[in-house]
Design brief:
CATH superfamily of the largest domain: Response regulator
Structural class: alpha/beta
Largest sheet: 5 strands, parallel
Order of helices and strands: EEEHEHHEHEHEHEHEHHHHHH
Mean pLDDT: 77
Helix content: 40-55%
Strand content: 5-15%
Number of helices: 13
CATH architecture of the largest domain: 3-Layer(aba) Sandwich
Strand order of the largest sheet: 6-5-7-8-9
Shape: globular
Radius of gyration: 21 Å
Number of strands: 9
Number of domains: 3
CATH topology of the largest domain: Rossmann fold
Distance between the termini: 43 Å
Length: 364
């Protein structure tokens, strides 16, 4: 929790609401109870995870100036759909998660780019050897070879003129995550899920001089920017198949519409892909639990958590994160409780999709 003078500000955590009045800490299976209880507290404001790097400063300013309590998306940032013409660079997107790849490609397309893609670090290194890339967006956790090892090899094996700008993509948002990426040879850092505005600022920061415009993204030029773009979203034109978001809904339909480029057909494909992948990964989680194989549980839960954050299935993010931590710590009693929470959240997500979309996205 954060306190500003006498103004309590709630920070959402897996274990409950802290430093924000008297609040119980529910079990992983009761996130809705926590959310309801939180609203009854005398709070000056609320922050929801996953936090973007600009959320906390904006909330602090809003509280201090007695502004409205809800941190809404800013319209100050203008998305440049023709950025690829103004800053013509070659981009490689690397991620082992097909949903993250699909979302990332769609996000770059909003800026006019058509990136090449690779599914792991080995493929990424081969692609960098074959082609001349200006920017590589590099997932940190991947099989065969992770993003940090790719960065190390690029810095050690390629001459300076052949080294692209490397931007780490990771679900971690702590200072130690940034430092770890920097030490491995990354130039910058984006927390997942990221948005087109954040990518635009990264591109303008590192390659804006190519346009000859002299524009700056406003990011720190010392590398590993602390605020690579924030959450400034342009207003969305929600398609008929994507209802507006409610705070109590397990699905963030604005996020889902955003990553689907406001295209109902692409949204349907995204939902189908998510459910197909979720069923497969949850089976992997359960198999790892049965064998008490903590690393296997973490791998499957982490991959699914990334997909949930990417396409707006937010009810599943926190219980999956708890499952990851507990499995690695060998806390199998707690893992069982978190598994039930994940199952409950997944049922809520599927029920919400069936109720709110004009077609049945869940296979019989």
């Amino acid at each position: 929790g954060v306190r500003l003078g006498m103004k309590p500000c709630c920070v959402w955590t897996p274990s409950g609401v802290t430093n924000a009045g008297t609040c119980s800490s529910p079990t992983p299976a009761t996130p809705t109870c926590l959310k309801t209880e939180m609203r009854r507290l005398p709070l000056a404001g609320t922050l929801y995870k996953p936090l973007l790097n600009t959320d906390l400063p904006r909330q602090v300013v809003a509280l201090w100036e007695e502004k409205p309590r809800t941190i809404a998306a800013s319209s100050a940032f203008t998305l440049d759909g023709s950025l690829a013409k103004r800053v013509p660079i070659k981009i490689l997107l690397v991620d082992d998660n097909p949903i993250n790849l699909k979302v990332g490609v769609g996000t770059l397309e909003k800026l006019g780019y058509v990136p090449d893609v690779a599914a792991d670090g080995v493929e990424a290194l081969e692609a960098i050897k074959r082609g001349s890339y200006d920017l590589v967006l590099l997932d940190v956790q991947m099989p065969r070879m992770d993003g940090l090892e790719v960065a190390r090899r690029v810095r050690s094996d390629f001459p300076p003129e052949r080294q692209p700008i490397l931007v780490a993509l990771t679900a971690g948002a702590m200072q130690e995550d940034r430092e770890r990426c920097l030490k491995a040879g990354m130039d910058d850092y984006l927390s997942k899920p990221f948005r087109a505005q954040q990518l635009q600022q990264i591109i303008e920061k590192w390659h804006g001089n190519r346009s000859g415009s002299g524009e700056s993204s406003g990011a720190d030029d010392k590398g590993m920017s602390a605020t690579p773009g924030g959450d400034a979203r342009t207003p969305l034109k929600m398609p008929a198949s994507a209802p507006s978001k409610s705070d109590d809904e397990p699905v963030d339909f604005e996020r889902l519409a955003d990553v689907s480029n406001n295209d109902p057909e692409m949204m349907a494909e995204m939902v189908r892909l998510f459910i197909e992948q979720a069923d497969e990964l949850l089976a992997g989680v359960k198999d790892g639990m049965d064998k008490q194989d903590g690393p296997a549980v973490k791998v499957h839960a982490h991959k699914l958590r990334g997909s949930c954050g990417a396409c707006g299935m937010m009810a599943m993010v926190e219980p999956l994160a708890a499952l990851e931590r507990q499995a690695l710590g060998g806390q199998w009693t707690e893992v069982a409780a978190s598994w039930q929470a994940v199952q409950t959240a997944y049922d809520r997500v599927k029920a919400c999709l069936q109720q709110r979309l004009p077609y049945n996205p869940v296979p019989a």
